[in-house]
Specification:
The protein is an all-alpha fold. The protein has one domain. It has a two-stranded antiparallel sheet. A hairpin with a 2-residue loop joins strand 1 and strand 2. The protein is globular.
């Protein structure tokens, strides 16, 4: 691997770790586009590149989410009952989403990924914030109901779930922003496990994978990304609890929209070098 690609992945890991702690997301909207660019620039087919980016992203999410969840737990921002319920249900359906991804064209996966991120950003931007007196549901049924489709989406487009779960938590489940960030980080521990196992199994014996791959998970890229993202998650946690919830919300939305448009190909169509 050429040095420019190594540096790009190391810098991406720094950004991913900070985003995970700051925003309660796995950093998929940063990491997957960069991995896709690196792999296609190295000559791998778009279909192999997007699936490898999805699978490797989920393996990076796992230790990063563990680190971030511990930090948020120390701040009292993790509702573990909700997070574990969402996570266990999501892990099961995440493995099914990854199975579906192994049989879909790469171009479709790339576009679906961008649309999912863009939809989450728009919904979060336009939704009215929950009233102060409202509280998250006490029963498990709402978390089970949301865990099924969200888990499937996580596996299908190779994300931990926070980028979709935070809008759902703040809008539909009435979480306060900081609690949504902390609890979604805990959920990602589980959804990433289910997705990683499925991407590994479904990519075994596939031809044209990058060196040091187990199925659609590339261990070299994982080391470069996870090695910087894990310590940076703690920096992001500290920053999150020093920023007002409103600023946190708009940072989250802005990055989501940019990466979504990038993956859909809007900037390419418009001939914009961004």
């Amino acid at each position: 691997m050429e040095p420019i690609y190594i540096y790009a992945l190391l810098l991406t890991g720094i950004g991913v770790g900070f985003a995970s702690g700051l925003l309660g997301v796995g950093g998929c909207f940063i990491m997957i586009p960069v991995q896709y660019w690196v792999l296609t620039a190295m000559g791998y087919s778009p279909s192999i590149a997007i699936r490898t980016a999805f699978g490797t992203n989920l393996l990076v999410v796992l230790p990063t989410a563990l680190s971030g969840a511990l930090g948020h737990h120390g701040k009292g921002a993790v509702l573990w009952r909700a997070g574990v319920t969402l996570g266990v249900v999501g892990a099961i359906t995440s493995s099914l989403g990854a199975l579906a991804a192994a049989h879909l064209p790469g171009g479709i996966l790339k576009t679906v990924f961008g649309l999912a991120i863009l939809g989450g950003a728009i919904r979060m931007l336009t939704a009215k914030p929950p009233r102060v007196e409202e509280e998250p549901p006490k029963g498990l049924l709402p978390y089970i109901a949301w865990g099924i489709p969200l888990g499937f989406a996580c596996g299908l487009i190779g994300i931990g779930g926070g980028v979709l779960m935070v809008p759902v938590m703040t809008v539909a489940l009435k979480f306060k922003m900081h609690s949504a960030v902390g609890t979604s980080t805990a959920m990602m521990i589980f959804t990433s496990i289910g997705g990683v196992i499925s991407y590994m199994l479904n990519g075994l014996n596939v031809q044209g994978l990058p060196p040091y791959s187990i199925g659609y998970v590339n261990l070299l890229q994982w080391i470069l990304l996870a090695g910087t993202s894990i310590p940076m998650a703690q920096v992001g946690v500290r920053a999150a609890h020093r920023l007002p919830a409103r600023k946190l919300r708009y940072i989250f939305i802005a990055v989501m929209i940019y990466m979504a448009l990038k993956m859909i190909g809007v900037f390419t169509w418009l001939h914009l070098p961004i």
